[in-house]
What we know:
The structure is a single chain. The protein is of the alpha+beta class and 479 residues long. It has three domains: 86 residues, Uridine Diphospho-n-acetylenolpyruvylglucosamine Reductase, domain 2 (2-Layer Sandwich); 111 residues, Uridine Diphospho-n-acetylenolpyruvylglucosamine Reductase, domain 3 (2-Layer Sandwich), CATH 3.30.465; 214 residues, 3-Layer(aba) Sandwich (Vanillyl-alcohol Oxidase, Chain A, domain 3). Helix 8 crosses helix 11 and helix 11 packs antiparallel against helix 13.
Amino acid sequence: MYDKKVTSKNGATIEEKIIDEFKSGLRGQLIRPDDESYNTVRKIWNGMIDKYPSLIARCAGTADVIHCVNFARNNNIFASIRGLGHNIGGNALCDGGLVIDLSLMKSVYVNPSTRTARVEPGASLGDFDHEAQAFGLATPLGINSTTGVSGLTLGGGFGWLSRKYGLTIDSLISADVVTAEGKLLKASSTENPDLFWAIRGGGGNFGIVTSFEFRLFEIGTQVLSGLIVHPIDSARDVLRFYRDFIKQTPEEFVCWAVMRKAPPLPFLEPEWHGKEILVLAVCCSGDLAKAEEIAKPLRAFGKPLADVISPHPYTAWQKVLDPLLAPGMRNYWKSHDFLELSDGLIDVLIEYARQLPDPQCELAFVQLGGAVNKIPVKATAFARRNPQFVLNVHGRWEDAAKDEICIAWTRKLFMACTSFATGSVYVNFMTSEEQDRVRQAYGTNYDRLVELKNKYDPNNFFNSNLNISPTVNQMEAVV
């Protein structure tokens, strides 16, 4: 539980007059444990995370963010940064200390003439899509409309449009960044280009982004999208066909594979509800008639239980998985990257899909490649350009009594897939216990990231994350 006192990292109590001065300097709100809204505001997407910050500053703008950084630094208070709190590891919250909450900063401004968008860090993917799609425009984002643009982008970001247009960071033109010194810097290819390089995949290690500028693409407002559902007994044959089929498809076509227990979907016969299934989730942007032709062989293969692929509004497709990713559930994930979908890997996935410990647990197998692979590894901090697939072992359940069995299943499946994997990992799918995998996430870019951490955050102010630790102060201490 929380302590009503606000203390520094070394345990010193912060005087109330200092906190009052801090509060008076905010345009936004300061929430404390005695406030009625405290327990509501401190909740985040992953229901397993239950932390009790001493202060929650709900920022109204960049000036508030600078004020928060200066207050926490000057008083040696631990700080965490919250966008929309969708991070699996719960890095948005801290026990004690200050949460710099950006969730009220939600504006999205689209310029259809220049095909660019300015987005604040509290905006969700749904907020962004709503504004951009008014003009038939989009940027590659994720697959859940309640995800925050900020956290998604800083970790790299990928979704249904990524094979055609790249990662979210590949559409980033510039960003306004508040540094650990409380300075506001513009990061772009021409201004502070090293910082711009670092924030494109380096997570929240280098500052707080208060505004993102994105490039937009004209995709229209409709995509061919939907689900093909097969029984798990057909999964081996379907996945073997799938891996050969997708090698022939253009970049605007993407298909992800999911294995789970069937939810009570209206297009599935009731007898299949609760039984293990393989779902192929298809999205194809561009000309709809051409998309129908591209998808035809996949739809014709085997004997699916259901095929609900048709033209849909892009904004609707971006929300289709929201019911399966609603906030408040308990979540524990593990992730791997792969260069191919081998027979051995297929067998492992099916084996564990038959052992799902809860109806909400699933295996999500993401198709990448295309434009993602065309950017050089050294061009951005995001180093995972070669993988063709990403597996997210998505442990998800409601009852805390099932923690042990669901976590064990997730870990066992992760280990069983290790011999097929590249060794790299997507930082946005990592839990807080995986600090030892940070170097794997950044590969050959890790050492340069450490150098930039030494430059922009040598005291590791931004450490409530999958941390890239500075070395400069450690070296000075040795000297």
